[in-house]
Write a structure and sequence with these properties.
The complex is a heterodimer of chains A (465) and B (247). Chain A contains 14 helices and 13 strands. Chain A is of the alpha+beta class and 465 residues long. With 247 residues, chain B is of the alpha+beta class. The chains are: A alpha+beta (465), B alpha+beta (247). The complex binds flavin-adenine dinucleotide, iron/sulfur cluster (2 copies) and FE2/S2 (inorganic) cluster.
């Protein structure tokens, strides 16, 4: 998809500013009028004047130690929007994908696609038991197979069969894996087994079938773990994958609560509720990315260019360059980032509780103080240490939003699970938790009723449901 | 934990040299992990490009012990660790800093390739019908992750610096994907013969050897394209027909 877009884009006269990072959104009179950042190549600052800005910066996975996301997922868009005054919502809803690699250590977190289970892959604990059959939530009982035979038929395209429990929602599968591991039934490296090789017993050309249907997984395990998935089971465990929350946008125009600022894709919130289903992110960003672009263009046409505040640019440059003044003697940015990742993983991860999250808030405050002392050596040209130091602020803002929102939601729902409130609370189901920057820079958390669904949409749901 | 030495090129367009870093290595590590560990512990400003760490984005290309490879897919257990592991940037492209090179030339080349030109839709709803077998043929080319390792190794670019006259193996793969696409109606053979210089390729197959996606660049893309070019421009009957058409 990326290449097709690129292939098409290069013939359309679009200017692409490659390897350019935005540090600040510029506002004038309550609307967005531009963006300010730097290019990685030379470290030069760049000003973009714009009558509308569309954010499409992805997620926040780098706030966690074990993640399927790339280094770029430092929550920049969410933090930029928040700093400029826009609302974030649903930040407590972080999706942990049940199947990431766990061994060897250097590949921990790399995604193993749902496709493996879709093709008939099964989860087993160290005793060989398909533990997913042991805990099928009531809500899904009717749609879930209660025996291996039926589950297998579903994966082979039998429309009358119900799906195997391995394909229950991601949050549920992830928690079942955590339970197996905590109760001592995990694999040697702290995961469980995902086995696709067993289908050879069912399909005459099973080995070829696996290679044909799952070429990149075959390749990935062969190259990175030395495992042939047509012969052996994989060891897998949950990995931080996606954030359902993000920038609050209008469902039609994709405009945030800050005029002129639009968002689409993973950094925008709302579409996936408390839990995204597999495959829906790409369809989301195709549909709503197009809409965001169209509405942003329309909005821009109606606006006059705004005024750029020089003082803001100067302050941004000063803050950006401060790590060089402190030099190598300051706090190491990588060290701060690793400590943040360890803490979020441990305290605001898959299973949460009040006491741990309160400790996380204290930890975040301490990490903020250390970030303010971060120092880097070298110069501005392609300096990853410097980039990491600047990204830290965004990671901290998003981590704080996740933690505060998760504390506020005293129930379990979708990707958010609290052991101190393990069930759904119908009253909370009608609420969004919103974060906004307060007048003194403090994070304000509000509970807000979910807007009533439009009658025509309700009709569609009833028709299909 | 055992240690190993990594000899990493550091510098920029004006020059640079190899620096030795000693770091701990553990089971399953790839070269990119070692570079990251060095970056985190000893050289915060060590420049390296990467993204997916799973061989999918094509951004971590480098020359490891002289071989063009992806750093994230090169396991330390496959390298002789008694000796220093040398890591250098791709040499066919201008250096930016340390392991990061300026590969923008490639994007310029891509722009010169005629875009996909599909035939009119087959069905009234604007969709097409294609036989599965025809799709399979171009599928291999679509696997390309644009790591540019094939461009790096090709002697036409690396030694003869014919960047102005030769598009390079990556773009023959790209052109092959378009030319062999069952819906495409565009003709790129003149460009291949002319400005893209496919004739400079003397089928050494070095590009195929380094491709991390195992695309059979030479046999499946370049040779069929060369054959088409020959058919179009040197086949006497075709030439006659062309002569008649233009006359
Ligand atoms: C391994 C993996 C597999 C997945 N598989 C699927 C799947 O099969 N199906 C599915 O539906 N979803 C899948 N997802 C989820 C989906 O891929 C992502 O949610 C989606 O790609 C997000 O797209 P996006 O356009 O919002 O952001 P991205 O595509 O991530 O793009 C964000 C861009 O913003 C840029 N950026 C970030 N910060 C800044 C800044 N400060 N300044 C300038 N630029 C910036 C980044 O460089 C990047 O180019 C997968 C995710 C992962 C990690
Ligand atoms: S086969 Fe052709 S394109 Fe490939 S490396 Fe050799 S000369 Fe270059
Ligand atoms: S053809 Fe292979 S080596 Fe060349 S850019 Fe594509 S993936 Fe890389
Ligand atoms: S980091 Fe993506 S290919 Fe190596």
């Amino acid at each position: 998809m990326i290449r097709t877009l690129q292939d098409h884009g290069i013939h359309r006269g679009i200017d692409v500013h490659m390897e350019c990072t935005v540090l600040k959104l510029l506002t004038d009179d309550g609307r967005v009028v531009g963006a300010f950042g730097y290019d990685r190549e030379r470290g030069r600052f760049r000003l973009f004047r714009a009558r509308a800005v569309v954010l499409a910066t992805g997620g926040i996975g780098r706030a966690y130690k074990i993640t399927s996301n790339s280094w770029e997922y430092t929550g920049d868009g969410q933090a930029l929007a928040y700093d400029a005054g826009a609302d974030l919502i649903d930040m407590e809803f972080v999706q942990f994908h049940p199947t990431g690699m766990v061994w060897p250590p250097s590949v921990r977190g790399i995604l193993v696609t749902e496709g493996v289970r879709g093709e008939g892959g099964v989860l087993r604990n160290k005793d060989g038991r398909r533990f997913m059959f042991d805990d099928i939530p009531d809500l899904y009982k009717n749609q879930t197979a209660d025996n291996e035979e039926e589950g297998w038929r579903y994966t082979q395209g039998d429309r009358n069969a119900r799906r195997p429990p391995e394909l229950l929602t991601r949050d549920h599968v992830a928690r079942c894996i955590v339970r197996e591991v905590r109760e001592g039934r995990g694999s040697p490296h702290g995961g469980v087994y995902l086995d696709i090789s067993w289908i050879k017993a069912r399909l005459p050309n099973g080995e070829e079938h696996i290679k044909k249907k799952l070429p990149s997984m075959y390749h990935q395990f062969k190259e990175l773990a030395g495992i042939d998935i047509t012969r052996e089971a994989m060891e897998i465990g949950p990995t931080t994958h996606y954030i359902m929350g993000g920038i609050r946008v209008d469902g039609d125009s994709q405009m945030s609560t800050l005029p002129g600022l639009f968002a689409a894709g993973e950094c925008a919130a709302g579409l996936h509720g408390a839990n995204r289903l597999g495959g829906n992110s790409l369809s989301d960003l195709l549909v709503f990315g197009k809409r965001a672009g169209e509405h942003a263009a329309q909005f821009a046409k109606r606006q006059a260019p705004g005024k750029i505040d020089e003082a803001v640019l100067e302050a941004t440059v000063r803050a950006a360059l401060a790590p060089f003044e402190r030099g190598a003697g300051g706090e190491g940015p990588y060290k701060v980032q690793h400590d943040l990742q360890d803490m979020m993983q441990e305290l605001v991860g898959i299973v949460r509780n009040d006491a741990e999250m309160k400790r996380a808030l204290e930890g975040l405050a301490a990490l903020r103080r250390r970030t303010a002392q971060a120092g880097v050596a070298g110069n501005r040209e392609y300096n990853p240490g410097w980039h990491t130091a600047m990204d830290l602020n965004n990671l901290l803002t998003c981590s704080e939003a996740v933690t505060r929102s998760a504390l506020e939601r005293k129930e379990s729902r979708g990707g958010h699970f609290r052991e101190d409130y393990p069930s759904k609370d119908p009253a909370s189901g009608g609420l969004n938790i919103a974060c906004r920057k307060g007048p003194d820079g403090e994070m304000q958390i509000r509970r807000e009723p979910i807007p009533e669904m439009r009658a025509e949409l309700k009709g569609i749901i009833e028709e299909n449901g | 934990m055992p240690k190993a030495t990594f000899r990493i090129w550091r510098g920029d367009a004006s020059g640079g040299k190899l620096h030795d870093y000693v770091t701990e290595v553990s089971e399953g590590m790839v070269v990119l992990d070692a570079v990251h560990q060095i970056q985190a512990e000893q050289a915060n400003d060590l420049a390296v490009r990467w993204n997916c760490k799973a061989g999918k984005c094509g951004s971590c290309s480098a020359e490891i012990n002289g071989m063009p490879r992806l750093m994230c897919m090169t396991r330390l257990s496959d390298l002789p660790l008694e000796e220093p592991v040398t890591i250098e940037p791709m040499r066919s492209f201008p250096s930016l800093r340390d392991l990061v090179t300026d590969v923008s030339w490639n994007f310029g080349v891509k722009k010169t390739i005629r875009p996909f030109g599909p035939r009119p839709a087959d069905a009234p709803d604007g969709t097409w019908r294609i036989a599965e077998g025809d799709v399979d043929r171009v599928q291999e080319f679509r696997k390309c992750i644009e790591c540019f390792l094939c461009q790096d190794v090709c002697h036409v670019l690396r030694e003869h610096h014919l960047h102005e006259e030769f598009a390079g193996p990556r773009f023959f793969v790209y052109t092959a994907a378009l030319e062999m696409h069952p819906l495409d109606t565009e003709n790129r053979l003149g460009d291949l013969r002319g400005p893209q210089g496919i004739g400079y390729c003397n089928i050494t197959k070095c590009c195929t050897k380094v491709c991390p996606e195992s695309i059979t660049i030479t046999d499946n893309a370049i040779i069929p394209l060369k054959e088409r070019v020959v058919d179009e421009f040197y086949d006497p009957i075709r030439r006659l027909l062309r002569g008649l058409r233009s006359g």
